[in-house]
Amino acid sequence: MEYISSDTNVWIDFLSIDKLELPFRLPYIYLMNKDAVDNEILAPKDLSPKLLALGLQTTELSEEEFYLASDYSDKYGRLSGYDCIALAIAKVRKITLLTGDKALRNAARLEAVNIIGTIGILDELFESKTINSCEYLECLTKLQDINGTIVRLPAEEIEKRIDDLTTTKEVLNGSD
Asked: Core-most of 51, 57, 137, 138, by most CB within 10 Å?
């Protein structure tokens, strides 16, 4: 099993489309700093217990991660303290960072940390045949419908995947 350092916003994306359990079908162990789980995931109120029940694991910071998170706070002023912690965990442990936060993704790129987000998780679920094309399309369509509100994803990436799926389905169904 591969470990992934987790930010909060991807969980809100999956909760918003009533698919919170989907990422846990992949062979990953999602980690989040214990303080972030206790203090950052405040809304909706029952999200933390749901994530923990599904398998999210809490972790404590090492001394190196603590000081690196502090350095990131000075270096990347747009990041929250918990964003800096998630990035420091990913960097020190040499694991992927799960986030959709633009500023955090940019910082992770600068720090040479691998990133995956909501769309990447959905792609992996589909490509591994963990979900079928109907469920993949359902998730993408729901995300598209609420994009720009609670969910902030690249609209063109969602649209491209929907177009690819619907074109493939039309070809498979014999319609051109």
From this structure: 51
